[in-house]
Amino acid sequence: MNKTLLDVTARIRARSAAPRERYLDLIERLAGRQRGVQRLGCANVAHAVAAMPANDKLRIVAEKAPHLGIVTAYNDMLSAHQPYEDYPAIIRDEVHRLGATAQVAGGVPAMCDGVTQGTPGMELSLFSRDTIAMGTAVALSHDVFDAALLLGICDKIVPGLLIGALHFGHLPCVFVPAGPMSSGLSNNDKAKVRELYAQGKVGRDELLQAESQAYHGAGTCTFYGTANSNQMLLEAMGLHVPGAAFVHPHDGLREALTRHAVRQVLEIIPQRRYTPIGRMVDERCIVNAMAALLATGGSTNHLIHWVAVARSAGILIDWSDFSDLSAVVPLLSRVYPNGSADVNQFQAAGGPGFVIRELLGAGLMHGDVLTSVADQGLSAFARLPHRAEDGSVTWTDIAAKSNDEAVVRTAAAPFSPTGGLKLLAGNLGRAVIKVSAVPEDRHSIEAPARIFESQEAMQAAFKAGELERDVVVVVRFQGPQANGMPELHKLTPPLAVLQGKGFKVALVTDGRMSGASGKVPAAIHVSPEALAGGPLARLRDGDLVRVCANSGELTALVPAAEWDARPLARITDDAIEENGAGLGRELFAGMRRNVASAEEGAITWL
């Protein structure tokens, strides 16, 4: 095992000793109770089974058959979640074959960041994660289930479902994905059209045509953003059916995997090989997820989400842990925006199983963890699933060599000896930067700052030709307290245009950029945020700013005495009111007031 990996794991374990002990004690108390239908009053049980077929009532009450709860994020607004419409029927059919029962315990909201990008609705996106967690808790609060199947894929949905499930840590849980859409217009070609549109060289019709060719059917978007990073991390945590992440929604194997999820979760219920999710997700499991994220250049959103996930299991992690692991975990894959391939090409090249196999072999993952595969460690997730003639699932070993070394490589010959995410720190606060797609000559930028308080203001300055120079674009008052920390994807095309003209360009923001910041160096999630009195509020137009991934610096090159004496810039009351009004934003005012910093997971429940 790699020494740094062991050291990081050990310090997380030590740091988390007290909250983890409290969490495990709670699991033990809940697990020690009678099953729900034996424990609850007769009226409670009657309500719970009232709408079920008579045979199912008999199985639950008289035969004491296992009873599964389904929590689904189905809607047909999200292309990735549209296939879930038929999953409850498939699951019910399979549980009946196996002598068990299942109910849809509840649904949770699932918004599409692609639809709300650049609109006020995007300001609800981050907080939707904790809303989903609460919805999961409401669904499972009926407390009659022996285990749960969790149906969700996209950006905030998987972290929200996982956070909610961990607050019912005594339950065995398996996540059930639905897979990516087929490849359409390449991500590189899509990005080129976006840049041409930003320059005014093509119109809205051409842009809409390109976007519609890229996003064209059921399944997740095919770039390696937060949604697909979610799936990689769930594989690395052992919470899927092995190899389920990137099988197409309409592939015959997909239904077989969904049916196998029922079999898999029934193997780990209390009556059999009891493996509750709260015990599975320990500090080793969290470190495995971090290593998988770094090895694949995954979404920066997970430096927020997995802090919150870990805390839900009584585990305390921070960005220093990610940074130290990044120094030893090699970059094993290049998927857009870190390369030209999409997730379908990633899957064809070897996919998550190849990456997990390589990291295990290099001592960069803990193999001896509990997983949803009864009595098997993480090595079960380093295999490839196949649909047998009888409709069951079988697995084979993954090829020793990559099927495409432009997409996936071995740990012995990686794309880079270090991971794709780094910690930055200095007198502007702490931030993260994703460098896996950034050209090496852009890893260190030093230029005058130009400050904005919205991405719309930055776009207006770009269109007016005011940014045609070396510049560090600063977009502040975009943190969770200010406006819910929306993703600022509309900044990427103009910044890429400026960089393409040869200017030295970087972005600094207390907002988010997800997994799509791409080739422009971006210091994001700056903490503390400007509205909370963070030093980003001291910055002024023209200040020289250094953003250096090599040295880990995020610094305003201003004399210390002058810097300390500067008053903090303040957002206007009108802007605060505007950020909190309309399109449902008023309902999230309490979350904005109570939210923790980005490095603390932007959690709202403590």
Q: Explain this structure to me?
A:
The strands form three sheets. Strands 7-8-12-11-10-9-13-14 form an eight-stranded mixed β-sheet. A four-stranded parallel β-sheet has the order 2-1-3-4, sandwiched between helices. A two-stranded antiparallel ribbon has the order 5-6. With 606 residues, the protein is an alpha/beta fold. The mean pLDDT is 95. It is globular, with a radius of gyration of 24 Å. It contains 25 helices and 14 strands. The protein folds into three domains: 3-32 and 65-182 and 217-397, no CATH class; 33-64, no CATH class; 421-600, Glucose Oxidase, domain 1 (3-Layer(bba) Sandwich). The protein has helices at 3-15, 17-31, 36-39, 42-49, 54-61, 87-97, 113-116, 125-140, 157-166, 187-198, 204-214, 226-236, 252-266, 277-280, 283-295, 302-312, 319-326, 343-349, 351-361, 455-463, 480-483, 492-500, 560-565, 573-579, 589-594; strands spanning 67-72, 101-107, 147-151, 173-175, 383-387, 393-397, 421-426, 429-434, 444-452, 471-475, 505-509, 522-527, 544-548, 553-556. A hairpin with a 5-residue loop joins strand 5 and strand 6. Pathway: Carbohydrate metabolism; Entner-Doudoroff pathway. [4Fe-4S] cluster binds at residues 154, 221.
